[in-house]
Design goal:
The protein is built from 15 helices and 20 strands. With about 450 residues, the protein is an alpha/beta fold. The structure holds flavin-adenine dinucleotide.
């Protein structure tokens, strides 16, 4: 008899779980609150412009996800970007190629002393070795996360490194600040940046989710209000709202939603897990896509705006660097990711006001920019990216066993299991699906058929 498995959330983690179960021969149902798949890994085409609504880079160390592209027949969609990055102080641009130590030595944003400090800081990170593996922390890791990155840098290196290096890195990687992330999280990130190459999906970052969504039974606009166990090991009643409300019964459930939402949906979650999920801190994030009447290839792919001069925009990317198919001929597209503070302030503001504030700031660095605007689109993410503040990795480590074991036949996926990243979301979904298969026993536990998807439709 087919086991009935439900997945709550059609972000990358939920879809990865669904796909893994489907490949094993099951027919899971994925419930999604929104009317699109992919969550923070989605894109849309508007008048020939391909807009990434949230995630916009595919770093080369997303290895499992990259291997999975082959399975989907999407390997040719992955294209390298030039990986160029600029930091803007006022009107002045300072560019450096990410992952190029030679470029870094000529980087004019930093004084000679600051460069020496950066080298020292990098060597400090490199020397920490295994302690910087956030998924398998050691006693040293816990010692490194007793203070914020900001406190550490002010104590040991000074304001310039904090403002010109740590802030842009934290804004870009964590969508947060050195005040909301620990010394451990910052050093772990810094260590990776030295060899980081950036790729993108030429048809939009949502391509993978859309492709998976086509093969799976996904119920869009179907928010799950409650998951209620009928006994400790299930079955489970899912109370679904939205366009087709109803109650459905399942043998196993995977919750693939941002961490703080888990105890709201699964109210009988154990006290230890509830405490863990409620304490995972996310920075909100607003993304504004700006479609332009002319090409603007004139600057780096990623542009970091320093918070001393720019309160609203943290990062501005020029999408043509993601491949020529992103815009119609002779047009341009730029995407602004707002700072955590501005995202918080503007989360409920009308779209017009958000776009207006973004353009006023962008015009200061790129004079005349708003004169070329065709249209803008605003995307809001209440749970944008996880902040790894002091104690976050210790809390995660303490909850690891319970997170992995699940509760009865309810399992957890999503970036909330560690930190925000497409690869982590994907891996967490596959892992939760494996747990379901193990628990259901019978034919699903072993000798699973290798059902591969057909060519892209
Ligand atoms: C602006 C931005 C830029 C980013 N850039 C990058 C990047 O460049 N590279 C990178 O690796 N990562 C990046 N990230 C992080 C990455 O996007 C996320 O870590 C990842 O996509 C999370 O996937 P997920 O499946 O865990 O969660 P989500 O994508 O949030 O999916 C959860 C899904 O659950 C749905 N849902 C919620 N509640 C319910 C409910 N009650 N019932 C049914 N459905 C529900 C949501 O609508 C959503 O679709 C970025 C994030 C943001 C916000």
């Amino acid at each position: 008899m087919q086991s009935r498995v439900a997945i709550v959330g059609a972000g990358l983690s939920g879809l990865a779980a669904g796909y893994h179960l489907m490949t094993a021969g099951l027919s899971p149902i994925v419930f999604e609150a929104e009317d699109f798949v992919g969550g923070r890994s989605s894109s849309e085409e508007v008048d020939g412009f391909i807009i990434d609504k949230a995630a916009y880079t595919w770093p080369e160390f997303h290895r499992n996800l990259t291997a999975f592209l082959d399975q989907l027949g999407l390997e040719n969609d992955l294209v390298p970007t030039p990986g160029t990055s600029s930091t803007w102080r006022g009107h002045q641009e300072f560019s450096v190629k990410i992952g190029s130590p030679r470029d870094f030595l000529g980087y004019k944003l930093l004084s000679f002393k600051d460069k020496l400090d950066m080298i020292r800081l990098y060597l400090t990170a490199a020397a920490r070795g295994r302690a910087l593996n956030l998924a398998a922390p050691t006693a040293t890791s816990f010692r490194l996360e007793t203070e914020t990155a900001a406190t550490f840098l002010k104590r040991k290196y000074g304001e310039n490194i904090l403002e010109d290096i740590a802030y842009p890195i934290c804004a870009e990687i964590f969508l947060g600040t050195p005040e909301t992330n620990s010394r451990l999280a910052f050093l772990a990130t810094l260590k990776n940046l030295a060899w980081f190459k950036i790729f993108s999906l030429t048809q939009g970052m949502g391509t993978v989710a859309e492709r998976m969504g086509r093969d799976l039974d996904v119920r869009l606009a179907s928010p799950v209000r409650q998951v209620t166990p009928l006994s400790a090991e299930g079955p489970y009643h899912l109370d679904v709202g939205g366009e087709r409300p109803g109650k459905h019964e399942f043998d196993a459930v995977i919750l693939a939603v941002p961490a703080p939402l888990v105890p709201r949906i699964f109210r009988v979650c154990s006290p230890a897990l509830t405490k863990y999920f409620e304490n995972v801190e996310y920075a909100p994030s607003i993304v504004v896509a700006l479609a332009l009447d002319r090409r603007r290839p004139d600057t780096s792919f990623i542009n970091n705006l320093l918070r001393q001069d720019h309160r609203v925009v943290a990062t501005l990317t020029f999408d043509l660097h993601k491949g020529p198919r992103r815009c119609p001929p002779d047009k341009g597209l730029a995407t602004a990711v707002l700072s955590a503070a501005a995202s918080r302030d503007l989360m409920d503001a009308p779209d017009d006001r958000v776009s207006h504030e973004v353009l006023a700031e962008v015009d200061r660095s790129w004079p005349g920019f708003s004169g070329d605007l065709l249209f803008s689109r605003v995307y809001r993410w209440e749970h944008g990216a996880i902040q790894l503040g002091p104690g976050a990795i210790r809390r995660r480590h303490q909850a690891a066993r319970a997170l992995d074991a699940g509760q009865g036949n309810v399992f957890f996926a999503g970036d909330g299991v560690l930190k925000s990243s497409l690869e982590i979301a994907f891996n967490s979904g596959v892992r939760a699906a494996e747990k379901v298969l193990g628990h259901l026993g019978g034919p699903w536990a072993k000798d699973r058929p290798d059902v591969r998807p057909g060519p892209p439709g």
